[in-house]
Structures are given as C-alpha cells and as structure tokens.
Amino acid sequence: MHVLHQMTRDTDQFRNKSINRETRRRVWSFARPYKGMIIGFLLTLVAASILGVLPPMLFRQIIDVAIIDRNRGYLNTLAIIIVIAAFAAAGLALLERWWSARIGEGLIYDLRSMLYDHVQRMPLAFFTRSQTGTLISRLNNDVIGAQRAFTGTLGSVVSNVISLGTTLVAMFYLEWRLTLLALVLLPLFVLPAQRVGRGLQEITREGMSLNATMNNTMTERFNVSGALLVKLFGDPTKEQGEFSERAGRVRDIGIRSAMYSRTFMIALSLVGAVGTAAIYWIGGRMAISGDISIGTLAALSLYVVRIYTPLTSLTGARVDIMSAYVSFERVFEILDTPNPITDRPDAIELADVRGEITIDHMSFGYPEDGQGSSDFATLGHDSAPVEMVLHDIDLTIPAGSMVAVVGPSGAGKSTLTSLIPRLHEVTTGAIRIDDHDVREVTQQSLRNAIGVVSQDPHMFHDTVAANLRFGNPDASDAEMHAAAKAARISKVIEALPDGYDTIVGERGYRLSGGEKQRLAIARMLLKDPSVVILDEATSHLDTENEALVQAALAEALTGRTSLVIAHRLSTITAADIIVVLEKGRIIEQGTHDELIANAGLYSELYEILVATDPETLVATDPEILVATDPETNPETIPHPI
Question: Does residue 317 register a pLDDT over 70?
C-alpha cells in the first residue's frame, strides 16, 4: 500500500527541490521534545526488522537438521522459538504503533496549538487579506503532512532500509549467486511502478481538483446565507445536475484509479511469482547438484519476497521526504508571518479606566503589501500605506461623554473607531486613553476596557449563555440575567425553548436583527467596559425594534464614554459632541444645534435624513419606549424565535 501511496504523489513539484539547512534545523527543533520517543521508535523498527529475518533461518534448520536427523526434541525447540518470535514481532508492532501515535499526535498538538495562537493574535488586516479556507488547510492538511514526516516517512524509510539491509545480509550469507539473481529482477518492479505511478498521479490530481470543487460548492451552499440565496435565486434541479456531473466524474476517476492500482498490484504479484519461481528453479537445480541444501532454498524463497517491496518503496523515498518538508515549510510560512501589532516588552496594564480619549494629530493608511493575497509570506510586513484613509485627526473626548461620528460613506468612520481598540496601528500621531498611549498598554487590558456593538453583531453557533459570557466567562447567572434585562432581551430569551441554553444557530440566524442587537448589547453590558463603540448599531432596525434598542442603549451608555457611528437622527441629536468626517478629515465638530447653525455638511446630511427617514424622530419618544418595552409592558413581548 505504501507503494501505491507513493505513486499517487505529485512528484513534479519536488523533482528539483532541495532541503536547506535552516529548514532542517527548525524541523529538528520541533522534534527535539520527542527525542527520546524517536530513538525508542527507531530502535523498535530495528528490532522488528532483525526479528523478521529469524523465521526463515529457523525453517532452514527444521528442514536441514531436525527433519533429516529425525530429532523431535530439536524440532520442538525450533517450533517454540518460532512461536515466541511471532509473539515478539506482534509486541514490537504494537510498541512501534504506540511510539508512532505518541510522536505524531504530540507533534500535531504542538503545531496546531502554536499556529492557532499565532493566527488568532494577528491583527484584523491579516484576516481581511487572507482566505479562511487556506488558513484552515494549513492548520489541518499541512500539519498532518508535517506529522507524517516523523511517523510515516521517517518510519517507512528507516524500516525499509533496515529490512532490506538485514534481508540482503542473510541472503548473501546463505547463497550470493541466488541473491544477485533476485536483484536482477528488481527493474521489473521499479519501472512499472514509475510508469503506472505517473498515470495515477494524473488521475489523483484530477480527482482532488473535482473533490475540492464539490467541497467548495457544499461549503458555499450549505451555510445559511448560501442556502437562502439558492432558494431565492437558484434552480434546485440545475444545482443538483451540476453537482451530480462532478460527482459522476469523481466516480469514474475512482473506478479508473482502482483498476490502475489493482492491475499494478497483480503485475507485482506476477513478477514476484516469477522471481520466486526463478529462485526455486535455479535453486532447485543447485540443490539437486548438491551446491545448496533444501533448507537454504526454502529460506531464500522466503527472503526474496522481503526485498522487492522495500526496494520499490525506497526508489521514491526522496519524494516522500521532500513532500514532508514542504508541509513543514508551509507551516513555517504561517508562523513566520510577522505580527505588526504586539505588546511592547514594557507594556503596562490599563487599570481603573475613566474613559477619556485623546486622538492627537493621528493619521492612518492601510499597508500595500499583500492586500487581497493568500501568500502569507507577504502578509503582516510593515510597508508604506497605499493611501492615507484618515488625515491629522485631532479630537478630545471627555470621560463619560457621548460622541456621534457622522459623514458620507467611505469617510473613514469605522476605521477611526477600529483604531481605538488597536485593531489596526496608527500610521502617525497617537491615540490615548486616560493619557496612556494605546501602544504602551497591553492589548488585553485595552480591549477589556472597550465594548463594541457592530452593525451586524456576530454570534457563535452556541447557546445564548455562552454568547453572552464570551467577554466575561466568569459572570454569574445573576449578572447575566441583569445584563439581559438591561438590554431589553430577557423576556425574549426566557420565551425560547431552552431559555439561556438555546442554540442561536450559525451567526445567530435564529434571532431577528433587533434581537441580535439587543443580545450584543447584553454581551457588552456583561463585559462592563468603560468605553463603548457603537458602529451603525441601529441602522437596519424598524421603528419598534429601534425603540427597544435605544432604550437598552440609554442604560448601557450611562456613565460610559461612547463613540457612536449612526444614521438615525435619534442617536445623533442626543450626542454631547458630533464629529463630521469627510474624506478622512474632521471638517466639523460641535453640538447638534451648533452644527445646524453652521449650515455646513452636517446640516445637509441632517436635511437628507429628515427627508428620507422622518419616523426616526419619534424613536426616543418616552411613550413609544414604554409601549414597546417588554420589560415595562409584558403584553407587547416581541414574538419568540
């Protein structure tokens, strides 16, 4: 089976490839913790290979000595030794598998843990400029490929070398002429293996491509958004036909591959039979003439089978080793992707946060290298920004105040708020919280002090309670219920089939837009941050849901510094300070009345909002809030999920 596995590997990419010293050093650094296990693994392989040479020698003694001399005692002894050797071989096989599993699974654990930790600490730009599928492939396929370097490739090569060496020594010891005859037949194994292997490579490559296409189709169609799009715009019959066509081609390729493999194995069996027959024929003539004993002939016929498979496998050993090292290189490529946003060695913990924010002549531009690329070697490196998005932003936000950020689409509103929790690094200038530059405090303490409610809050496919506690895993049930009540969502949660233990579905699709917003607000309240960022948190809500969310926000923002990106007038007009952005620059700031009096861009935007969305003016009317608030008027509880 190893021969077939080798034949299906795409050898072209490894033909002229070499292993550099640095890669070897790094591979060994990962293997070093398992040094003792690897030595034990190799010693087990050596012992198993040596033990495998013993039975034919014992059979030779049975035929040439015990039977000829009619020595039943010696025959019994040899039989017992053969049985003991069989049990010992079985024990060594189990020990070999145990070493292999310990090394392989341990290595997978180490690599996956290190990769996951490195990737999840990367800045947001890393994820926006790389493909999720590629990342997952590195965490799965390439890690497993690297593991095979130790448990598969290393074990196979060492086992084949030792087995071949011990077998050839034993054969030459018994009869060197018949041993050379067996080696002459080797090309009849190797040449067909290479020829059939090239055909299997093409078949396997095509099959993998078709399988990848089918997997992509299923991934895109079977998530909630994809399924909804197919139902609304697609044709199920056409979808099924296209998928069946690909599946049919995979079926046909599978049949061809099976026939290629079986034909090759039959051919090898025939060649092996011919080789064995040749040994018996020539060896038999030598036995008749008295040159060798019958026992020697029998032993040689057993040994000859042991040399063909290792020799054939070793012809592709270099490709096996190179492919394993390529997997390591792909893993290292991720680990070597630099993280431009890291804690300084002397970073301090941000504690007792009041919430005063100072943006000091700050400018920002996204880096150019690697944008839109899945080549991890180009991601994460510092480079000149392709174009400045924010220009010389100078703003002071007093602790406990509410600042509304408005402006046309693409003005840089979301970018500005993402710089405060340090999702991106400022290009020039500084952002300070309580006179501490955000680059001088630990990222964890900085983000612990900040709560964010986005336009489309993400929910994991988990329970309501798990999603609420994500920012504060140690929160008690009482604290969680209080946060849900303050967010005007507790009645909805209690009406769910399993209450707080209800699974919300992928991305929270079992929740309505307003319910997700309120659940996100409850999550933020349970985190209890000093600074709150609301990014279009009410832009897609109807009047009733907005009233509930506004009531929740009124309580959520009390005593906290808040930055609000909003289009709804009810949110904008209540702000202590309104900042107007255009093309990445602050062109106006002040209160609502001051900006209306200035008759600038804000006044124009306000007039447009009034003309297009006048009903939002009543969204904060106290009577409407009371009438639609499920916490104060249970008769109007929103419809359960």
Answer: no
Structure tokens at 490: 């507790």
Question: Are 509 and 408 members of one domain?
Answer: yes
Instruction: Say whether both 243 and 390 belong to one domain.
Output: no
Task: Tell me how far apart the alpha carbons of residues 164 and 173 are, in angstroms, rounded to a whole number.
Answer: 14
Residues 136-158 pLDDT 10s: 767 777 777 777 766 677 777 88
Token pair recorded at residue 202: 């093409």
DSSP conformational letter for 66: I
Q: Beta-carbon neighbour count of residue 112 at 10 Å?
A: 17
- 439 C-beta neighbours (distance < 10 Å), count: 18
pTM across the whole model? 0.69
Is the four-CA dihedral 439, 445, 447, 450 of positive or negative sign?
negative
Interval 611-623: pLDDT, tens: 665 444 433 333 3
Q: How far apart are CA 469 and CA 475, in angstroms?
A: 7
State how far the Cα of 203 lies from the Cα of 55, in Å rounded to an integer.
40
Same domain, 438 and 561: yes
Q: What percent of the chain has pLDDT over 90?
A: 16
Cβ contact 589:395 at 8 Å: yes
Asked if residue 431 is part of any domain, the answer here is: yes
Q: Are residues 296 and 410 in the same domain?
A: no
- Measured CA to CA in angstroms, residue 30 lies from 70, 98, 99, 331 at distances of 58, 19, 16, 12
Number of Cβ within 10 Å of residue 498's Cβ equals 11
Q: Give tens-digit pLDDT for 524-575.
A: 888 889 999 988 766 555 566 667 667 777 777 778 898 988 766 667 777 8
| Domain assignment present for 352 | no
DSSP 435: T
